[in-house]
User: Fold this.
Amino acid sequence: MKITFASSYGFCLGVKRALTLVMNLDPKKEKIYLLSPIVHNSKVMDHLKNQGFLTLDDSLTIEEKLSSLHSCKVVFSAHGHDKKLELICQKNDLEIIDTTCPRVKANENSLKKDIKEGQDVIYIGIKNHPETVSALSLDPKIIFIDYHNPSFDFKVNKDACSVHNQTTLIRSTLENIYLELKKKYKHVKLVNDICFATEQNQNALDEVTIEDLIVVIGDKLSSNTKRLYELAKQKYPLKMVILAEDIQDFKNINLNEFSNAFITAGASSPKEQIDEIVSYLKNFNN
Ligand code: SF4
Assistant:
């Protein structure tokens, strides 16, 4: 199979930075707990666990995990975290390794500035996603709009109101939400916090031409990977689009029917995961 790569795909700077921060620690010398996936990719997490990083029972909340720990290092994920968790860390003498992406932090700072100036703030995000949880924890007055199920049944009392959002959304869907918002509240200031990496990876989908198979490589828990997959399906409804974590995801597809594959990958997908899938695809239609 002939393979064409998107001009932009895979690890973004925020993910690389988070992994560098963690890999600079030595889990063989001290206990270091990963409280949640530092980036949404199970292969990355498996690698870190093999290096000696510790995790706790997945059925526990991060709050419960922290409450059970004392005097060790804990790693907060690249997505950001609920700010109340920092108080538990203080109380339990836990040293925080905060891998929050600088882009997420910049969005949160801008959101805090708007609140401080007395503006109402609306946040558009995916319900319960850690980045959304982190942003909403900044102030209980933030008005939340669920990206997947937007509702505009709220009141914005002040003249000044800004609209922020999660970094990994699809721009066209976000713009549809903006349209609805503007119909109801003409004065709102739209910020658009989609990050550069998400935007670039999504724009690179426009490079698809003759390819009959589009493969989006990444973890099914990763927001930016899922949005990339959804966007590819929206843009190319007549082509086969697959979200693949590994080669098992092709088991129900006759790959001999395809001759040209377009490859892209989410911002948390490591090179090894991409290489494994690409090598596999190359075996077909040689
Ligand atoms: S996808 Fe964007 S916001 Fe998320 S870690 Fe990468 S650069 Fe940061």
Remarks:
- The radius of gyration is 21 Å.
- Residues 102-116 form the longest helix (15 residues).
